Amino acid sequence: MLTFIIRRLLVTIPMLLVISFLVYLGLELTPGDAVSHMIDPEAASRMTEEQFDQLREALGLNKSFIERYGIWLMSVLQGDFGHSLSGGVAISTIVLDRLPATLELSVFALVFSTVFGCILGTMSALRRGSVTDSSLTVFGMIGVSIPEFFFGLVSILIFALHFNWLPVGGRLLPSYDSYFDHLPNIILPGLVLSFMMTAGVMRYSRSAMLDSLSREFIRTARSKGLPDWRINMIHGFRVALTPVVVLIGFRLPTLIGGSVIIEEVFQWPGIGSEFIEAVRGADYPLVMSIALLSVFAVLMASLIVDVLTALIDPRVRLS
Amino acid sequence: MTNAALNRKFDKIRAREEAGLNKPQSGSRALRKLMGNPLAVAGLVIFLIILLASIFAPLLTPHDPLKIDLRAMLQPPSAEHWFGTDRTGRDVFARILYGGRVSILVGLGSALIAAAIGVGIGAYTGYRGGWLDMIAMRISEIFMSFPQIILVLLMVSIVGQSLVNLMVIFVLTGWGGMYRMARARMLSLREEEYVQALQSFGVPTVKICYKHILPNALGPIMVNITLTTAMFILAEAGLSFLGLGVPLSIPTWGNILNVAKDLRVLENNWWMWLPVGTVISLFVLSVNFIGDGLRDSTDPTLQG
Amino acid sequence: MTTDLALSVKDLKTFFYTNKRCNKAVNGVSFEIKKGKTLGVVGESGSGKSVTASSIMQLLPRLSRIEEGSITYRAERGDIRIDQLDRDGAEIRSIRGEEIAMIFQDPMTALNPVYTVGYQIEEALKYHTDLDAAGRRARVVELLTDMGIPLPDKRADEFPHQFSGGMRQRAMIAMAMSCNPKILIADEPTTALDVTIQAQIFNLMNKLKEDHGTAIMLITHDMGVIAELADDVAVMYMGNIVEAGTVDEVLRKPRHPYTRALLESIPVLGRGRDQDIKSIRGATPDAYDRPKGCQFAPRCDFATDACNQMPEEEFITDTHRTMCHNWRELADHV
Lengths: 319, 304, 334
What we know:
The complex is a heterotrimer.
Chain A: H1 2-29, H2 34-38, H3 41-45, H4 49-58, H5 65-77, H6 91-126, H7 131-145, H8 148-162, H9 183-213, H10 216-223, H11 228-265, H12 271-280, H13 284-312, H14 314-317
Helix pairs in contact in A: 1-13, 6-7, 6-9, 6-11, 7-9, 8-9, 8-11, 9-11, 10-11, 11-12, 11-13, 12-13
Chain B: H1 3-18, H2 29-36, H3 38-55, H4 57-60, H5 92-128, H6 130-145, H7 148-159, H8 163-189, H9 193-200, H10 205-213, H11 218-242, H12 253-257, H13 263-268, H14 274-298
Helix pairs in contact in B: 2-14, 3-5, 3-14, 5-6, 5-8, 5-10, 5-11, 6-8, 7-8, 8-11, 11-14
Chain C: E1 5-18, E2 21-34, E3 38-42, H1 49-56, E4 64-75, E5 78-81, H2 90-95, E6 100-103, H3 107-110, H4 117-128, H5 133-146, H6 152-155, H7 165-177, E7 183-187, H8 195-212, E8 215-220, H9 223-229, E9 232-237, E10 240-246, H10 247-252, H11 257-264, E11 314-315, E12 321-322, H12 327-333
Parallel strand pairs in C: 3-8, 3-9, 6-7, 7-8
Antiparallel strand pairs in C: 1-2, 1-4, 4-5, 9-10, 10-12, 11-12
Helix pairs in contact in C: 4-5, 4-7, 5-7
C-alpha cells in the first residue's frame, strides 16, 4: 500500500510543478507591472522613476523569468502566495479565512450526494423497469439538466422569499452567537450544490449496479442458493462500488467548480465567491493563486480516491 | 417488472412468433431502437422546436431584442409582449429567441469543434502509441486537473470577454474529455484482428486509423458530443449569469438571467428570468434524452 | 431402476424472449441423470445444452422462462418438481448449493474478484450447514486439500486472480462440492483450460464420482471428453436431443447423421497426417429462422422428403434412442 501511495505521489508532484510553471507564466502575461500594483497609488504618484527602479531592484523584479519563478515557487511552498492587488492583504490570509466556508459546503455536498446517490441508484437498479426506476431515472435526468444557479434562484424564491423558512443567503450574520446558529444557512446552498451531484451519482451507481449484476459471479452466487439481499448487496453492490468511487473521483473537479457559482448565488463567503471577485477586479495574483490551489485540491482528492479504490478493490492493490 | 407482467409479455411475443408475425428486422438496428425510445423521441422533438424557433426568430416575433423602449419598462406578459419586458423595455420573448441563437452556437459549436480536435488527436495518438501518445496524455491531464469553471474564468481574466474568446476557451477546456474517450476506444479497437490484417496488407497508418477503425467508435463519440453540448450550454449560462461570459451587449440565455441576481427582480418580475431558465433546462434536458437514447441504441451489449 | 435416478427431465421447453422475438432454445428435451454416473451432453454452441443446465437449477436469465415440461429431482424426502418452484423462492434456494451444484466454464469471471477464495467457499457452508466459524474454516482447508491445491491454508486467504487457471477451477469445484451435493452440473469446465490441466480436472471429477457417488451432468462440445468421462451421452442440436444412449452405443454405433458427422470431423491422434476429416457442410441455422421439420435436414446426407416433418423419438435398444426418420439407412452405411 505504501509503495502504491509513493508511486502515485511521484506522478502527481511533477504535474503540480508543470502547472505551477504554467500558472506563473500566465501571471507574467497579464497586463500591469507588479510594482505599481503593490504600492498605494498616492505614494506612487510622488515617486520618481529612480525610486521605482530601486524598488524593483529591491523586490527582485529585474531578475530573469526563471529566477523569479524559482523565488516565487520557494515562497509558495512555504505558504506565501504574495498579496492581493486590491487592499494588499496577504493571499494566504484571504484563503485561510474563507476556506472553512467552502469546506462546509463541499463536504456537505460530497457526503450527501454520495450517500443518497448510491441509495437511490441501487434502488433504481434493483427495481429495474418499474415505476420507481422510471421516475428516478427521469428525475435524475432533470437533475443534471437544470443549471445549478437557476435551481438555486428558484429555491431562494420558494423557500426563502415565499415561505420564509430559510435565510436568503450569507453565512455568519451578526446576530448569530454560536457556531450552530448558522446551520440553517448551509441547508439551501448545500442542497442546491448536492442536487446535481446526487443526480450524477445516482446514474452512475445505477449503471454500475446493473453492470455488476449481469456478471458471471452473480450466477455463481445464485447457484449456491444464497438469499437475494446477499447476492445484491454483498456481491453486486460491493463490486459496483469500485467504478462508483472512481467516477465520483472524476467528478470532484466539478464539485469544486460548482461551489464557485453557488457561493455567488447565495452570497456565501467562500473561496469561490472570492475567486469571482478577483476575476472581476483583475486581481491577477489572487486569481492565479486560487487556481493553483484548486488544482492542488483536485490532485490531492484524486490521490485519496485512488487510495480508497485500492483499499476496496484487491485487483488494484496488487497491480 | 413483476413476474406476472413479464409472463404476459412473453405470452404475447410467443403467440406472435408462432403466428409467423415476427420477421427479422431490416434496416439499422440503432436507428430503430432510438425511434422506439419515447424519451429520446421527445428529446428530439423539443430540441428541434427550440432550435428552429431560434433560427427562425424573425418569423416568430416582430420585436427587436436590442431595442430599448423606456416607456414599456418592467411589464408583465401581455398580448403584445408574450413574455413581458425587461428593465429597459426590451421584449423578453424576442431576447430569448435571438439569445438562443448565440447560446446554441456556443454550446453546440464548441462541442463539435472540441470533438473534432479531441477525437482527431485521440484516435491518431491512441493508435500510434509511444511518446506522442504520452505527451498528449500529459497535456490533457494538465487541462483536466483544473475545475472547468476555474480554468475558464482564468482564461477569461487573461484574454478578456468576447464571443469568439469564449468559444475558443470552451474548446480548450473541453477537448480533453473527447480525447480521452476516443483514445480509450482506439486502444481497445486496435487490438482487433482486422487491424492486423490491414497492417499486413500495407495500408497506410492514417487510413487504417481514420477510415477503418474510427467509424466503429461513432456510437460513443456521438453520445459524448451530446453530453459535451449540454455541459457547454450550462457553462455558458452560468458564466453569462455571472456577467463573465458573453459580453452583456449580446443577448444570450445566460445574459438574460443576469438580472435575477437582484433579489427584487427575483421576487417581483418572474417573467424576466423564470421562462429563460426553463428554456435552458428544457433544451439541456432534450439533449440529455437524445444522448441517453443514442447510448442505449448504439450499445450492442444491452439486451432488449 | 428408478431408485438409481437422481434427476429426470421430460419434454422440457425453455424459451428466450429478447428483442421482442421468441427463441425456442430448448424445444422438447428428455433425459435422466443416474446416481454415481456421468451423463455427457454434447453439442455445438447454440444447441441449448447450457440452457438446459440453467433450467435445472432455475438459474435462467430474466428474459426467459421454462415453458413446458417437467424437471423432477429425486430427493430422499420425495420427488420435487423443480419446474414448478418459484424462481426466487426459499425452496429452490435450499436445493441450490446443497443438493444440486454447478461449476461454470470460466472460473476467472465466475468468482467474485473482491473476496478471498476461502470466503466464497465458506458462504455456501454458512447457508447450508450448521458449522460455526472455526468448523467452516476447517472444512474449507479440507476441501482445498482434497482438490489437490497446495498450501491450502494460505491459499484460502488469497484472491481469485492470484490463482492459476487450473487452481481456480479446482477452487470452483471445491466450492460446488462443499455441501456434498447429490448432483453436480459441469458446464464446459475445461474449455478455458490447457489440455494438460484438463486431464487433472477430469481425474478429480472421476474421484468425486467414486468417493461420494455424485451424479454428474457434464456439458461439452468436445467428443473426446465424452469418450473419456461419460457413462451415458446425449447429443443435442438446435434445442433437441437427436441421439442418446450409453457411451459405447452412441460412439461406436451412431444412429443419427449429426452424431456421425461429429465423430467424423475429429482428428484422431496417431492416425497420421492424411486422415479423412470431413467437416459438416452448411452452417447452423439462425435460431429465429429455423427450417421446417428436422433441424439438421438441410445439412444432412441422408435427408429425404420425410424430413420435412419433425421426426419422433425411436428406440433402437432399451437405452439407445434417436430422432431420425432414416436411421436404418445410416446404420447400413456405417
